[in-house]
From TrEMBL:
Residues 1-20 form the signal peptide. Transmembrane segments: none annotated. Pfam families: Thioredoxin_2. The keyword Signal applies. InterPro entries: SoxW (IPR041737), Thioredoxin-like_fold (IPR012336), Thioredoxin-like_sf (IPR036249). It comes from Propylenella binzhouense. This is Thioredoxin. Residues 48-132 form the Thioredoxin-like fold domain. Keywords: Signal.
């Protein structure tokens, strides 16, 4: 009887962790829906576009408590995860990594040198790339940057705002976000942030 109980607990624990982020050898939390690429910005933008998606890259680092929260509290939420997975190709970068990256301007450098070149100092930081490659460094080509870890609705609304090309319009993200939250309250939805 005790063995059956232990087996049932193991099955439940496995089911609870299904789809959960895992910790990679590099110390970064991994989502099974993140894309593994050769980190060539032009190719990645084209690959995302071919899938009908936008490219977003996320910088993280080993031991980052905010990165852990992003994965455990935000990206684990089905609404957030499903929206991002359905609309974005996400590629993870290590703030102190040595993997080779090819910038949009053609420069080949390591992840850590790319982070410096692009001005990334916080983790996590999400960089949203344009729909088509341009001849400029990622730091100049980015349509939006989200530095730091935010709650579910702020994160989800940022991804929605970029997908809807809010950056090209007159409605600032904060105004968009406040409007979306107000619409949810009016519909009787409970908000986490």
């Amino acid at each position: 009887m005790l063995k059956v109980f232990a087996l049932a607990l193991a099955v439940l624990a496995g089911a609870a962790n299904a789809g959960a982020a895992t910790l990679g050898d590099d110390g970064l939390h991994k989502e099974d829906w993140f894309s593994l690429t050769f980190r060539d910005m032009r190719e990645d933008i084209e690959a995302a576009r071919a899938q009908g998606k936008r490219l977003a890259i996320v910088f993280e680092q080993r031991g980052c408590i905010y990165c852990k929260r992003l994965h455990e509290e935000v990206l684990s939420d089905p609404e957030v995860r499903d929206y991002i997975r359905g609309n974005y190709m996400v590629v993870q970068y290590n703030l102190f990594g040595d993997e080779e990256v090819t910038d949009l301007d053609g420069e080949v450098l390591t992840e850590k040198k790319a982070a410096r070149k692009w001005g990334i100092v916080f983790t996590p930081t999400v960089i949203f790339l344009p729909e088509e490659p341009v001849d400029a460094p990622v730091s100049e080509a980015a349509v939006q940057v989200m530095p730091g870890q935010f709650g579910k609705m702020t994160t989800l609304n940022m991804f929605r705002w970029v997908r809807e090309k809010g950056y090209a319009g007159d409605e600032h993200f904060q105004t968009y976000h406040a409007r979306k939250l107000q619409e949810m309250r009016a519909a009787g939805d409970t908000l986490s942030d």
